[in-house]
Automatic annotation (TrEMBL):
It holds the Pfam family Lectin_C. SMART domains: CLECT (SM00034). This is C-type lectin domain-containing protein. It comes from Panagrolaimus davidi. Residues 24-138 form the C-type lectin domain. InterPro entries: C-type_lectin-like, C-type_lectin-like/link_sf, C-type_lectin/snaclec_domain, CTDL_fold. Gene3D superfamilies: Mannose-Binding Protein A, subunit A.
């Protein structure tokens, strides 16, 4: 009888990136401490074949808040991909807005604002897009 061993390579994120969930399909997250405007952060992410982070559930919101608090010690907020640069709030990666965690009293009717997450509460707020913040880039990890 012939014995055969099959080895499957499980894809992983590049070194220095957070992979969540731990097995595919997953996303890879890069926590960039350089301060940038929203458009600079978006350009930087896209130049690396990534996008600003979109958030689709409370658990990943919690994960990014926790890692953000650890990574971004010099600031209370960081850019996420939410923005109102068009008529409605959208994600820069074009994905569906199916989850949100806006702070109480956030005026979502204001146009030309960009979304940030608070590193201590995980709540989102909107600020002028020309302010500078650290940011999270994200990319899909496929099997």
């Amino acid at each position: 009888m012939i014995s055969t061993t099959v080895v499957y390579a499980v894809p992983e994120c590049p070194t220095g990136m957070l992979q969540y969930p731990p097995v595919p399909p997953a996303k890879c997250y890069a926590f960039i401490t350089t301060l940038a405007t929203f458009s600079q952060a978006l350009d930087d992410c896209r130049n690396a074949s990534q996008d600003l982070s979109s958030i689709h559930d409370a658990f990943i919101n919690m994960v990014l808040e926790g890692e953000g608090e650890f990574s971004f010690r010099e600031t209370d907020t960081f850019w996420i991909g939410a923005n109102s640069l068009t008529k409605n709030w959208t994600w820069t990666d074009g994905s569906k807005v199916d989850f949100s965690d806006w702070k109480r009293g956030a005026n979502l009717g204001v146009l030309n604002q960009c979304g940030v997450m608070n590193t201590r509460t995980g709540l989102w707020d909107m600020i002028a897009c020309n302010e500078t913040r650290p940011y999270i880039c994200a990319s899909d990890l496929f099997e």
